Amino acid sequence: MGFRLALLAWVGALGATLWAFTWTLGQPGLGAARVVAAIAVAGVAWALLRHVRRTNTTLARFVEALRHGDFATRFDGRGGAGFDDLGRALDSAMRDLQTQRRRGAEELRFLEALVDDLPVAVLTVEEQRGVSPVNKVARRLFDRHEGVRPADFATYGETFARRLAEPGATSRELLLLNVGGGVQRAIVRAATLERLGAPVRVVTVEPVQSTLDAVEVEAQTDLVRVLTHEILNSLTPVTSLAGTAAVLLGEEEPDIAEARLAVATLARRAEGLRRFIDSYRAVARPPEPRRRRFAAEPFAAELARLFGVEWLDHRLDVEVEPGLVLDADPDLLAQALINLLRNAAQASAPPAGGGRVRLSIRDAAIEVEDDGPGVPDEIRGDVFLPFFTTRPQGTGVGLNLVRQTVVGHGWRIEIATGALGGALFRIGVTD
């Protein structure tokens, strides 16, 4: 029966026995009955206390099991403990908690396995525990030291050891590390988290040497391909003109006028080849940005004036976010945008288009757009290569220098089709 009914029954029984005992006290000659009544009162009182105590003990054991995380226990309502409804509710809650705990444990095992199998090394830095490798890659890369202090990791690189010892904010940089059997470049990121109220720095190390090597080889292949094409294009007429001049001057009656014309043309072609090589030397020396903060509106106005002087028949629309302040090298950025604006003007020049160009400078991006024919998808990956050009008089240097300036600032550049129908060069200026 329920705890309430059982309690009422025992209280009723206690009341009845007390009444009987009191009644016997007023009746002479009922000594034996009086003793029996007293025993009955004591027995019922003991049974009532036992009922309450058993229920309290059952509840206490249940709560104690819950406190120790034993979600498999169940409320024992047998033996007259009562609280049937409460017991069912508590059992249901315990089953839910047990299910949630099992799911939480499964999720934790999944996350632990995921972190352990990550292709990036993960380390934690704590004040008490020191530096701890968290996953397989970390344990494989950092296996040549003893100790848990950041200084113990100096064997992999002095700068890396200093970064482990530096508390503070999120950081990201490319470091040279002596790991994996040799010195290689790796991207090192650090962030501060909190565990049990204490700060924990999480450091990830991603070796990228093999990726960079592959990219470098691919870039060298592209560069050699373009250089070979351009140099051969320049050497072919030079060789032909030199042969023509030699033939003319070797005749019994040399044609001096024709020979002079051939030599003059040869000199011009040689000078063109020299300028091409100078352009290559400029590409080989990437600029180093000297950043400072400056207002975007007067900067854009100056670009518009320079554009107007060179391209009188073109329309330039300038859009600048009011009050915007840029953090960049103004000279390098101006040169990069002048190159983009010049390319846009050349692409949109009649009859190719209507001669309209747009310059937009916002907080997150700088865009240069034209209404020309655009850049075909198949060559968008080549237009930033050194000396790649689709124009007969182009050098193929301008867009490469633009990309070097953008990358030097830690930004990115991409090509799309703009609202005007032509090419849209977008520089993402968010670091």
TrEMBL record:
<dbReference type="InterPro" id="IPR036890">
    <property type="entry name" value="HATPase_C_sf"/>
</dbReference>
<keyword id="KW-0472">Membrane</keyword>
<keyword id="KW-1133">Transmembrane helix</keyword>
<dbReference type="GO" id="GO:0005524">
    <property type="term" value="F:ATP binding"/>
</dbReference>
<dbReference type="InterPro" id="IPR005467">
    <property type="entry name" value="His_kinase_dom"/>
</dbReference>
<keyword id="KW-0418">Kinase</keyword>
<keyword id="KW-0547">Nucleotide-binding</keyword>
<dbReference type="InterPro" id="IPR003660">
    <property type="entry name" value="HAMP_dom"/>
</dbReference>
<dbReference type="GO" id="GO:0016020">
    <property type="term" value="C:membrane"/>
</dbReference>
<dbReference type="GO" id="GO:0000160">
    <property type="term" value="P:phosphorelay signal transduction system"/>
</dbReference>
<feature type="domain" description="Histidine kinase">
    <location>
        <begin position="226"/>
        <end position="431"/>
    </location>
</feature>
<dbReference type="Pfam" id="PF02518">
    <property type="entry name" value="HATPase_c"/>
</dbReference>
<keyword id="KW-0067">ATP-binding</keyword>
<dbReference type="InterPro" id="IPR004358">
    <property type="entry name" value="Sig_transdc_His_kin-like_C"/>
</dbReference>
<feature type="transmembrane region" description="Helical">
    <location>
        <begin position="30"/>
        <end position="49"/>
    </location>
</feature>
<dbReference type="InterPro" id="IPR003594">
    <property type="entry name" value="HATPase_dom"/>
</dbReference>
<dbReference type="GO" id="GO:0004673">
    <property type="term" value="F:protein histidine kinase activity"/>
</dbReference>
<protein>
    <recommendedName>
        <fullName>histidine kinase</fullName>
        <ecNumber>2.7.13.3</ecNumber>
    </recommendedName>
</protein>
<feature type="domain" description="HAMP">
    <location>
        <begin position="59"/>
        <end position="102"/>
    </location>
</feature>
<keyword id="KW-0902">Two-component regulatory system</keyword>
<keyword id="KW-0812">Transmembrane</keyword>
<keyword id="KW-0808">Transferase</keyword>
<keyword id="KW-0597">Phosphoprotein</keyword>
